[in-house]
Amino acid sequence: MKSRSLSLCGLFLGLAIATGCTPATNNNGATDTTTDPGTPSSEATGEINLYSSRHYDSDAELYEAFSEATGIEVNLIEGSDDELLERIRTEGENSPADVLITVDVARLWRAQQDGLLQPTESEVLTSAIPENLRSSDNTWFGLTKRARIIVYNTETVDPAELSTYEDLADPKWEGRVCVRSSSNTYNQSLVAAKIVEKGAEATEEWVQGLVANFAREPEGNDTAQIQAVASGVCDVALVNSYYVARLRASEDPQDQEIVANIGAFFPNQNEGEGGTHINISGAGIIANAPNVEAAQEFLEFMVTPEAQEIFANNNNEYPVVDTVAPNDVVAQFGDWTASDLPLESFGEQNAEAVMLMDRAGWK
């Protein structure tokens, strides 16, 4: 597998090789230290050019397994979701990109709306991936699931106090809630889901109450929210489930100290409450992909049991294929009910969600 990273300064210098750029920070809080965006070769049919915003070293094992099974080489270009989308737009019809992987459904929806993706007619994909986790026109497909859960301080919060996302707007949580900024796509998709479920007016009222209960101005990534809960800065926080699982799986004593002070709660589990919000890492084939057949083979490999175990479990996510079990650490969360809202609708409401969060003072 060949790998390159993309930085904004390299992008806006005509996608030429750039030097002296400031490292770019990706959606997962990591830093891209390689500043040469490069241009992968697309002449051979035995390769795909993969643009991915997933910055997890464990994914390399997945790509190597695909190459071993198919003989197709994976040329990896990494960057943030927005950087990669802008690169594909700039490259236009000459883009060498075959597959785009993002860490949030809103970016996939944007790529879909901008005509950057092409439909993929595959019985393998549509039979393996639940309908609400893929687009209605088959331009993108969810490949892993992540739940947006509540983390709480076990010294200051009785889990019996917890119930729903909506309850976090109750005045009893004043000064007790930590969360990432409104620019974070995970939070935007949660708010978009509530707009779909309850309407804009009720959702804005909820967000206003939630903001009123913030213990501090939003800062940091999901791990920072967990650390804040463990240290007593706040009592509860909204985070993706895999961040908690990652800490539980860690052998670092500092991580284990954090884990000892927190609990994980899956909200909205009672009848009529809608289930716990989920998001995806997902992928689609680029509209002008030079290696379409190989790209489809890549997507279909992603839903095999072997790939799902690597793709989801190495990063402590949930597989999208129901017959594949999560790893032991993730399984410790127990059974829970997920929201069955179509994720495509989150993208449709993303712009409204951002404006609503701004009006409510969510910085």
Give the CATH level 1 class of the largest domain: Alpha Beta
Radius of gyration: 20 Å
The count of β-strands is 13
CATH architecture of the largest domain: 3-Layer(aba) Sandwich
Instruction: Give the averaged pLDDT, no decimals.
Output: 89
Helical coverage, percent range: 25-40%
Q: N- to C-terminal separation?
A: 40 Å
- SSE arrangement, N to C: EHEEEHEHEHEHEEHHHEHHEEHHEHHH
Shape: globular
* CATH topology descriptor of the largest domain: D-Maltodextrin-Binding Protein, domain 2
What does this structure look like?
The protein is α/β, with parallel strands linked by helices and 363 residues long. The protein folds into 2 domains: 2-145 and 278-327, D-Maltodextrin-Binding Protein, domain 2, CATH 3.40.190; 148-276 and 348-359, D-Maltodextrin-Binding Protein, domain 2 (3-Layer(aba) Sandwich), CATH 3.40.190.10. The chain is built from 15 helices and 13 strands. The strands form 2 sheets. Strands 1, 4, 5, 6, 7, 8, 9, 10, 11, 12 and 13 form an 11-stranded mixed sheet that branches. Strands 2-3 form a two-stranded antiparallel ribbon. Strand 4 (47-52), helix 2 and strand 5 (73-78) form a beta-alpha-beta unit. Helix 6 crosses helix 7 (200-212) and helix 6 (185-198) crosses helix 15. The radius of gyration is 20 Å and the shape is globular.
